[in-house]
Amino acid sequence: MEKRYFTIGMAGHIDHGKTSLTKALTNVDTDRLKEEKERQISIELGFAPLYEDSEIQISVIDVPGHERFIRQMIAGVAGIDLVVLVVAADEGVMPQTREHLDILKFLGVKNGVVAISKIDRVEEEFIDLVKDDILEELTGTVFEDSPFVLVDSLSKKGIDQIKELIIKILMELEMRDAKGAFRLPIDQVFTVKGQGTVVRGTVYEGTVEEGQVLKIMPKGIEVRARQIQVHHKQALMAYAGQRTAINLSNVSKEDLERGDVLVSSEHFIVTKTVDVAVRMVEDLEHMVKQRMPIKLHIGTAEVMGRIVFFDRNEIKEENGEIVCQLRLEEEILTKRGDRFILRRPSPQETIGGGWVIDPRGNKYRFGNQTIEELEKKKVGTPKERITATLIEAKSLPLNELIKRTALDEQTLTEHLTEDEFVLYNGKEYTLQQLIHSIEEDIFDRLQEFHQSHSMKIGVNKAELLQTLQKRFPKSLLDFVVENGITNGIFKRKEQYVSLTSFIPHVPKNWEKRTENMLVELKKDGLKVRYVKDYFSTAGIPETLEFDLKRFLEDQELLVLLDEQFACHGEVFREAVGKLHSHTGSEFEVGDAKEVLDLSRKYMIPFLERLDAKGFTKRVENKRVWV
């Protein structure tokens, strides 16, 4: 069974015991900052490992509860799979608890556990009253049917029970999409002495591997994942659902900020105009007006903008979902289905939230026609649904596409004839953009390999595709390689693949010494010294010897007679010609020695090489020309 990764969050009012509960569950104090210790409140997001076995790994985010730190709270819960709503037994539901509940609803968090904390501070009879109060507040929310656990972080009452419950719920959940393109919204940027820039966040989707080339968006900065850590332990890969820190090359701390997104694909969209579906909070304190300033919280980004309606000019009370548009002051990276929160900048309050219908919004006219178009788009056009499905799955046969897109066969086949979609192997569909993306990736890998190994004819195909197979089906990778060969981008010799423009060559700094060595070797004819002597005399290091011998042999400049002796390719070919013209259809060792004037020391390796190359065939004590 594939291991699954989840991140849970602690939410609730200030001083209701979220950080203490996190510490009791994990033995980690997530209040790291001096100000947090002094003021005894969480300012920044805190992280800790909760549980791990062979099947599951669970991380905890402790999010700040104070109203002033709502921005960090939103950044924390945006990537979680389950929420522990912490309510203190001695205070009950408070204003911040209600705002957190609204935020969790808008972000689509469906799984929760209610922890009634600090139970040792109140009488047992009082706990029942608190529980009734909480149940009343939770009616109609995602937490309505959530289990309750009574806990006290100091005495450790209920700690084992809540931990077991969290594990049980998560064991029944599906993991986030680990097959899609990698995406990590950054919530922390810092430097580590001797290592450089490190970013941290929750992997929303996909996987990342050490050494992988990535991009910081929306800035478009290309970086490499130099090192990956999960809870302070080095890892070769990080998966969807994991909290991870990634050490990046080619970028400084000053170039990055919370809200940037680390991605592996060009398929994510950078935009400033987003079509959205929004719900408002039930008890709006102030009216929401047309084009009023809003603060958008999406992923870990916080961006100012304006809300634009197409069927109204204000909202005071609205229970349903409204299709509208957000016009932002800065670019964000997002895709269809992403959840977000809207806040009023002044006076500060959460006014609503929703999901992205289309990250590529246009300017529309005010009126019912636009609303109808947005409603249709909300459902998703067939083409958009096919594209989104193939971006996620990479390639699928027709029957699987029918299932995943919920489109009928006729509608599907009509759209699949468009240029964006490619049928390969006669049965599977993929996207033209994915083919280009893989082709570019292979091109870059080959280019890098040629620069480091200029004497090798190419990369073994299986080795070339090995890491890519973690993200793409092998059938698709094979098709891209064959398609690239057909189009003259790649070439293949036996199992080795290279760029068409590449010609194997000796590295420039060793060219002269190699030429000198070949001159000496040619001068000695067939009566050569040990091959190692020629390399050492020419000043060629042992580390280069194996690759250089292989290269020279491929270029027919060198013929290895056995492990000890080699001769110049030209000398070898002349000797073969001479022997062939001075013997009949067959000959013995003595005949060859007489023609070539060689001792047994050189004669036997030479004749065995003739056999190996297929010039001759040994029959008893004679050799027959083939």
Describe this structure in words.
By secondary structure, the protein is of the alpha+beta class. It folds into five domains: 4-171, P-loop containing nucleotide triphosphate hydrolases (Rossmann fold, 3-Layer(aba) Sandwich); 183-263, Translation factors (Elongation Factor Tu (Ef-tu), domain 3, Beta Barrel); 269-379, Translation factors (Elongation Factor Tu (Ef-tu), domain 3), CATH 2.40.30.10; 381-505, Winged helix-like DNA-binding domain superfamily/Winged helix DNA-binding domain (Arc Repressor Mutant, subunit A, Orthogonal Bundle); 510-625, Arc Repressor Mutant, subunit A, CATH 1.10.10. The protein is 34% helix and 30% strand. The chain contains 19 helices and 34 strands. Strands 2-3-1-4-5-6 form a six-stranded mixed β-sheet, sandwiched between helices. It has a six-stranded antiparallel barrel with strand order 7-8-14-11-10-15. The longest helix is centred in the last third of the chain and has 21 residues, at 432-452. The radius of gyration is 34 Å and the shape is elongated. Residues 30-44 and 65-69 have low confidence and may be disordered. It comes from Bacillus salipaludis. It is found in: Cytoplasm. GO terms for molecular function: translation elongation factor activity.
**Uncertain regions: pLDDT < 50 for 5+ in a row?**
30-44, 65-69
CATH topology of the largest domain: Rossmann fold
Judging from the principal axes of the Cα atoms, what is the shape? elongated
- Using the coordinates above, name the CATH class of the largest domain: Alpha Beta
Helix percentage range: 25-40%
| Cα gyration radius (Å) | 34 Å
Q: Please, what is the CATH homologous superfamily of the largest domain?
A: P-loop containing nucleotide triphosphate hydrolases
Span between termini: 57 Å
User: How many H/I helical runs?
Assistant: 19
**Estimated share of beta-strand residues:** 25-35%
* Average pLDDT, all residues: 85
Largest β sheet strand count, sense and barrel closure: 6 strands, mixed
Sheet/helix structural class? alpha+beta
Tally of structural domains: 5
Organism: Bacillus salipaludis
Protein name: Selenocysteine-specific elongation factor
Subcellular location: Cytoplasm
Domain Tr-type G: 3-174
